[in-house]
Amino acid sequence: MGDSQEFDRVYERFQLIVNGPALFNAVITALELDVLGFISRHPGAPFEELQRHTEIQPHKLRVLMLALCSTELVGRRDGGYVNSSVAEEHLVTDRPEGWRDTLIGWRRFQYPAFPHMSSALRTGTNAAALDAYPGSGNTLYERLASDPELVASYHDSIGPFTHLFAHALLDNVEIAEVRKLLDVGGGDGTTAIKLVRRYAHAEVTIFDMPSVTRHAALGIPDDLEGRVLTHAGDIFEDDFPRGFDGILFSHSMEVFSPEHNIKLLAKAFEALPPGGKIFLYNMCASDDEQSGLLSARLSLFLNVLASGEGMAYPAGDYEQWLTEVGCASVRSYTGLPYEHALVVGVKE
Ligand SMILES: C[S@@+](CC[C@H](N)C(=O)[O-])C[C@H]1O[C@@H](n2cnc3c(N)ncnc32)[C@H](O)[C@@H]1O
Description:
This protein is α/β, with parallel strands linked by helices. It folds into two domains: 3-91, Winged helix-like DNA-binding domain superfamily/Winged helix DNA-binding domain (Arc Repressor Mutant, subunit A, Orthogonal Bundle); 100-346, Rossmann fold (3-Layer(aba) Sandwich). It has 15 helices and ten strands. The strands form two sheets. It has a seven-stranded mixed β-sheet, with helices on both faces. A three-stranded antiparallel β-sheet has the order 1-3-2. The radius of gyration is 22 Å and the shape is globular.
């Protein structure tokens, strides 16, 4: 690519990024006012119909539609509006992996924290952004525990992403063979439920904080009783339960520092029988740490608010840690959708 084309490409990305916060909120407003849903049900709907449906002033709707059209999520056709296929597939959908609740969750839990970024990076702590939450503890997860509504709302916002990301994990030939899996930091049980639905021989135990396992237990369908179980505790302070042939860390290693992760991996290794496997499923920055928009946003969120540490480590970091705690054989499945990698270590 010539110099000027490269300049134009980066400048276009720059425009998207710096105008992004306003446009991000316009997308959420369009979801809340059912603009995208209405256009989906009435492709080609004229402005007047949309205005009657949303009941907002014509001028305000004009401004919102300019914003939506500028994102290209919505376009104009024959005097009316139509959704792009991206809007249809990812925003106007009843599928559990739709982005709607994720974006609403980013607005509530992530983006209010980012103005504290300079101080968080300078001081090396997440204290400033954590101040917005009641209770004690140095992580968002501990703070959420003081209020069941916060726990439910937070997990509702990460659930759709877990659905979206789970496909590549569930398709993996090694996870398919596990009979009893411990899901460390298993959250609301989305992965556990999907896994036992997919594999009739599988049983999964969610190991998470008591406030989260209580929430997860409410969502376990009756027909999966006895196949999706919960184990409440602190993954750092408490022993890992035994009797599992696989231990999964799905998005729970990104959250912590290398030192903390090695401690967790050593505990997992110790709890496994010979032949047992550790599965690390995470969003991973590229090896050269130069790309990955999802990885970059997540890493900033973790450091500014969630835990004050961690990042979307490149897959090589996980391989190194697994080797360090004693896994004889370590392999990576990289290039999975949404910047994911699965790293597997075997205890021999
Ligand atoms: C980013 S979420 C991952 C959720 C889920 N595994 C997924 O793939 O979406 C991290 C999880 O780790 C849990 N967690 C954080 N610190 C913990 C601790 N000290 N003890 C137990 N669970 C903890 C949180 O409650 C949360 O459910």
